[in-house]
């Protein structure tokens, strides 16, 4: 990868740089699946630049019982769970994991009903699919998204992220046909520290972006 100056300005800059790396897909009507909520503004930009279609792939992190900012795994909307390699049962019990899994699946059920009011979910079967997130810390969320999407038989499945912890790239590499990323700094601490501006994305913004096809 080319040298990218960090921190990035914002998600818009990150999306434009990723779209440049994915420019070869223009004309193939790629399906861009963004992981809500943060990656949806990025997905909108990438889909528009590549003349593709935008939708979401619903996955949620399972937070640690000790530190809610730390993901010990992720779950997709069907309840399929991906635990992080460093998951420690002595620090986060399986009872906690089961509870969080149930809560996150319920949240995704409500989100799918809300997003589905715009239009039916896109079908990845036989298509070039790019899953976009605004960064990889543990890789668990992207891994869950890739597994869930692979089960729906895309022609080609790519992962695209601006910044990633090097270890997270190793985790997702076997699950994707290719990974596009801008930087994988060795001193990776969190996704947000690699952006100058990293605001929360609201549900209203997600719904508005999904309308614009």
Q: What is the percentage of strand-forming residues?
A: 15-25%
- What is the radius of gyration computed over CA atoms, rounded to a whole number of angstroms? 16 Å
Strands, count: 8
Biggest β-sheet: strands ordered side by side in the sheet: 2-1-6-7-8
How many helix segments?
6
Compact description:
This protein is α/β, with parallel strands linked by helices and 213 residues long. It contains 6 helices and 8 strands; from the N terminus they run αβαββββαβαβαβα.
Topology diagram in text:
Elements: H1 11-21, E1 31-34, H2 40-50, E2 53-56, E3 59-63, E4 71-76, E5 81-83, H3 94-115, E6 128-132, H4 140-150, E7 156-163, H5 166-172, E8 178-183, H6 203-211
Parallel strand pairs: 1-2, 1-6, 6-7, 7-8
Antiparallel strand pairs: 3-4, 4-5
Helix pairs in contact: 1-2
GO molecular function, one term: glycosyltransferase activity
Domain Phosphoribosyltransferase: 13-168
Protein name: Phosphoribosyltransferase
Can you give a write-up of this model?
One of its GO terms (molecular function) is glycosyltransferase activity. Residues 13-168 form the Phosphoribosyltransferase domain. It comes from Massilia eburnea. This is Phosphoribosyltransferase. With 213 residues, the chain is an alpha/beta fold. The protein contains 6 helices and 8 strands. Strands 2-1-6-7-8 form a 5-stranded parallel sheet, with helices on both faces. The chain has a 3-stranded antiparallel sheet with strand order 3-4-5, sandwiched between helices. Helix 4 (140-150) links the parallel strand 6 and strand 7 (156-163). It starts with 10 loop residues before the first helix and ends with a helix. The model has no long low-confidence stretch (mean pLDDT 92).
